[in-house]
Design goal:
Blueprint lengths: L6 H12 E2 L2 E2 L8 E4 L4 H21 L8 H25 E7 L7 E5 L11 H11 L3 E2 L4 H6 L10 E3 H7 L7 E2 L2 H15 L2 E7 L5 E6 L14 E5 H10 L9 E4 L24 E4 L7 H7 L1 H4 L17 H17 L10
Parallel strand pairs: 6-8
Antiparallel strand pairs: 1-2, 3-4, 4-5, 7-11, 9-10, 9-11, 12-13
Helix pairs in contact: 2-3
Length: 349
Amino acid sequence: MEWSGEDSITKQIAEWTRQRGKSPRLYPGSLVWWLKKPGRELKDKIELWLAWQHVAKEMRDGSLSGEFDRSEHAEIQSKMADAEESAKDEIWGGYRFIVISDNRESNGLQCIDLGAGHSSAHETLCSRLISAMKSRGLLNESVGAGYIERNWPPALKESGAWPLASLRQSFLNGSLTRLIEPDSTLRTKILEFVSKGDFGLASGQKEGGNYEHVWFNEDMSPDEISFDSGVFLLLNSHARSMKSASSQQSISMQEVKIEPETKQPFVPSSKTDTASKPQTRSIHIFGDTPPEVWNRLGTKILPKLRSSSDLRIHIDFQATISSQEAENSINDLKLILNDLGLSDKIRIE
């Protein structure tokens, strides 16, 4: 398609940017349309290249009448290579317009003329596009805490909580700056923000605006960051007040039982200088665990127990599903256990 700036092509690109079929497109800011300049140059050069390819093929398989010496074969190969190089140059020079979503424009689009490029620039077409968008401030590799705070939605100022699903979408729908790798970049930066105390993170929203878990000015596991509506980025002031108001435990268990200390019986030693064996204590942790904290149970409890001499873990999942879905669910679970190498250790009833 050629970019001429006419209403027909502009309306078509705008429609494709706003809609995905009959549904509104959720991430229009993640799209880049790359179009060539008007004219037949590219078509003509591609056709010439294909024609020389066809001639070379007929010479090789003998379908072209006549006899050809080595110099003629070499000449055909040279012309075919020249036509290919000319076609490549035309692609670099002809594809010069990129069109992106821009809500500030009346038609919702912004067109950028990259100018004529050349294949000898020792870069790919995509790297040329990325470099051009970076130089114009339309694409970034990272984002700072100050930028997010300055662009905090006014409707969420009072609550001080921005759902991560909405935050991520703002970087993909054109509301905020574009990021090359939005998911990995945001995940890394949120961990950094929470660790430094620039922002807080909360999950498990309760009535009254409180949360089951709040992280602020502390290290946390990347597993806690999920881009859904139940996880929130908190403004510094809100996170600080929530953290100081109540020190909430990150893992809830109904009961923790420590069995009585077991003393080893005294056994006389034949050697007077032999030290007695150290006494041991058996710890038994049990109770019901909410599903949403299961991952944190593994990342926080197990490291504390790895150094023990006899660590045994018993699991017991119980769930109620419809009879129609039971067979498929059981088969899926068996495949998962088989992949984990636990099919001979864990039973499904």
